[in-house]
Amino acid sequence: MKGGHHGKVLLVDLTQRRVRTEPLDRQLAAAYIGGRGLGTRVLYDLMAPGTDPLSPENLLIFATGPLNGTGAPLSGRYEVVTRSPLTGTVLSSNSGGRFALDLKRTGYDLVVIEGIAASPCYLWIREAGAELRDARGLWGLDTHQTTERLLSETHPRAGVACIGPAGERGVLFASVMNDRNRAAGRGGAGCVMGAKRLKAVVVYGSQRTPIADPEGFEDAREEARIALSEAPITKNALKEFGTAVLVHLINEYGGLPTRNFQEGYFSDADSVSGETLKETIFEHSVACATCSVACGRATRTARRSGEGPEYETIWALGPMCGVRDLDAIAEANYIYNEQGLDTISAGSTIA
Questions:
Q1: What gap in Å lies between CA 189 and CA 175, rounded to an integer?
Q2: 18 to each of 120, 126, 131, 136, 145, how far by Cα in Å?
């Protein structure tokens, strides 16, 4: 296997404040393709059954896949793999933005973190290596404040994945936020980071992902690009209205979670739809790395601005709670992103 991986794994022991590099098991990477597959297998191999999710023995894995950094369409996502404090089962939560590309460019395919730091710290990864730095001055800051501070301390074009006060305080559905508003939200990975006193992972590099057959890969990439440019959902619907384009469709099928999912149809769905979002609070589209669809929405209400809400956040904070006010949904979404809370679990809990 010549392409798709740099061949390095970063191992971090927070208890001992030690970092070291090991070679990637390329046979394992070929057998378990992608960040989710490889990260989950590594978790299975290295962690004992019954491990407490908030214990030093629980592993926290940041995993890339073989397409990250190649320029392949829609290849801008990474995985956070751990044992979930919310469910007690294996968690693989993924997020978009640019962090996957930034992580891959450091030359590491996986980052495997164990232990609990004696005091708050963050992990700074570059091509030349990695180090743990003091984060006591960052503890208590929200995710946007943390990101700004870390960019000034490290590199202005670095990628930052961090937790907010929710992760620090042990909220079981705390998220890991990257690029300020992108979330590895499901299952409480942010809670695991908080238990480890790890405020953030910051990455910067310039290494290119190796491609075994550049000519064949370029042909496949062009084929995928054409398919995306011609498919109605990616050519028109998602590009025009974002993921919120699903509100009307799923409502008509009777599957839009409404009033704690006692119902599947929301009579005021139009007030929270992608069409209404575009007419009222939309500012401009936002794209993940290597994505031509740009389904993200930069938005602004009368009081605040931010990114989102996505379809899942709309139903969780809207119809699920009997709320039809799109401005209120958007502003709650901004706050939860800053605090590092999974918007889906937050809305479902409120409902």
A1: 6
A2: 15, 16, 8, 18, 27
Instruction: Report angle CA 58, 205, 31 to the nearest 5 degrees.
Output: 50
Work out the average pLDDT over 186-192. Answer: 97
| 52-to-110, 206, 208, 255, 342 alpha-carbon distances in Å | 22, 37, 37, 35, 21
Q: Partners of 83 in the beta sheet? A: 90
Q: In what order do the strands lie in the sheet with 78-83?
A: 18-23, 8-13, 110-114, 60-63, 78-83, 90-95
Q: What angle do CA 178, 181, 183 make, to 5 degrees?
A: 60
Task: Evaluate whether 8-204 and 231-350 have a shared fold.
Answer: no
Residue type, 140: G
Tokens representing 234 are: 């990616």
Q: Which CATH number fits domain 231-350: 3.40.1390.30, 2.60.40.150, 3.30.70.1560, 1.10.569.10?
A: 1.10.569.10
Q: Which two tokens stand for residue 62?
A: 């940041």
Which of the 8 DSSP states describes residue 209?
P
Residue ranges per structural domain of the chain: 8-204, 231-350
The two tokens of residue 66 are 């073989």
CA 54 to chain centre: 20
Entry pTM: 0.96
pLDDT digits (tens, 9 = 90+) for 267-283: 999 999 999 999 999 99
Domain 8-204: give its CATH code: 3.60.9.10
Q: How confident is the model at residue 164 (pLDDT cuts 50, 70, 90)?
A: very high
Alpha carbons 57 and 55: distance in angstroms, whole number: 5
